[in-house]
Amino acid sequence: MSKNPQSDVGMYDAFAEEFLEHASDGAYNAYYDRPAVLSVLGSVRGLAVLDLGCGPGLYAESLVAQGARRVVGVDASAAMVRLAGERVRGPVEFRRHDLNTPMAWATDGEFDVAVMPLVLPHVDDRVGALREVARLLRPGGRLVVSTHHPMDDWRRLGGSYFTVERVREQWNKGWEVAYWRQPLDVMCDEFREGGFLIERIHEPRPSERMRERYPEVAARLSSCPAFVVFSLVTAFGRSRRDPDGG
């Protein structure tokens, strides 16, 4: 597992308010990623849900509205956690937490399902983070992950598709963001090492709403996906604390 000592913990603090405005109605967040992840996740009525990289609470807000029994959102950004706490009401709580470190405040099997939307590329210790999530899910629990489509990263960044490296870019209004690019097989190997099996892979297509609201973006995403969504289940026959069975 790749680790980088210069991880930008809380890098979203600098533009949390702008991100909330952007993600609330932006093409990629509101009309592409969220609908795809929530569709793959399915019903959460009566479930305890872990929202990993909760940001300003847009996912948590939807999960509560859909009848989740309990939602716990975590994010490395203190500003995001503050915004989420101000915005979302109901059976929900938010915590500041760096996913590169263990979630010692939570117990084994505490959650039924988890979502990790567009977060994993920003985590340096991805296998460690996945193992922690597997520990916190009940046996057979599900984790729905959305992440950069590796083909889109390769299309944008060039070089070899098989490159594994930490990238720093400016997004939108000059936001400084760091993340990892890697090929699909490395991504899938990390899921396995983290204690999960792949149940489903979904490559989102633009919806009619997106075509109406953002026709140019929808046209581009109709031929080249930007994100990919995985439905993962905890691997059976393995210790929660040691997915490799050691």
TrEMBL record:
Molecular functions per Gene Ontology: S-adenosylmethionine-dependent methyltransferase activity
PANTHER family from the UniProt entry: TRANS-ACONITATE 2-METHYLTRANSFERASE (PTHR43861:SF1), TRANS-ACONITATE 2-METHYLTRANSFERASE-RELATED (PTHR43861)
UniProt KW keywords: Methyltransferase, Transferase
GO biological process, one term: methylation
Residue ranges of domain Methyltransferase type in the record: 50-145
UniProt xrefs under InterPro entries: Methyltransf_11, SAM-dependent_MTases_sf
Lineage: Bacteria, Bacillati, Actinomycetota, Actinomycetes, Micromonosporales
Protein name: Methyltransferase family protein
Record has Metal-binding as a keyword: no
Recorded superkingdom: Bacteria
